[in-house]
Amino acid sequence: MTRGLRSIVMLLAATVVGGVVEWGPGKGFTSVAEAKPKKEKGDKGPKKAKNDLQKAYDALTDVATWTEGKKGRPPRDLAPLIDQAKDLYRDAVRAAREDEPRRADELAKAAHDAARGLVHALRADAPGVRGIPAPPRRDPYELDDLLRRTRERLEDFADTASRGPGRDFLEAARRLYDQARRAERDDTIRAVQLARAAEAWTHVGEHLMQADSPTGYRPPPDRRRPPRPDDRRRPPPPPDDRRGPPPPPPN
Fold it and tell me: Stretch 208-226: mean pLDDT, rounded?
């Protein structure tokens, strides 16, 4: 093997092993290959934050699709609430454009709670889909928890919500809570939707008070969910008496 041929072979070996030269589409050496920088651990791009304004817009779009069609008309008691939810959304957009981040955030949350409550209220009276059965309930305590939490919030905010949208949604939440109680035995699916709507509407006035408070409004602390009732089908095991009586106290 001549000296020139040996040099070519060594160059090709270095190219294959070390990735020094890149083989291009034109069947020739095109450029020097560069190693790709390794991504640092934990670098997953910007974190996705909750966008209540977008969620409110999506929920209001669903409400409009439901009620503004040729066949759909909102119930009388929901029509003024739909207009108020739209006004809350417009106020949140205006506050965001005027560079009021704290107020815009609270107004967006109020608009989102108002809109998602409307969606649940409309679902409660919507006809079932023909040929599609309702899904089985995964949590038998969901309705009890919703009703308990809604009742507690209605009691906590009974005297705090001022006049306006906050008071209107709170009164509507109380009406839907009573309807959910009446439908609890006969129509559980409807009762769950009504309870979800009522629970969502209890948050509207709270966020409006936080938006209008210059120092920040502190809501009452959430009450913890009580433990589930004991399952009587599985009684607790008998106590273990093999350890004997406790030792006597020291003198």
Answer: 65
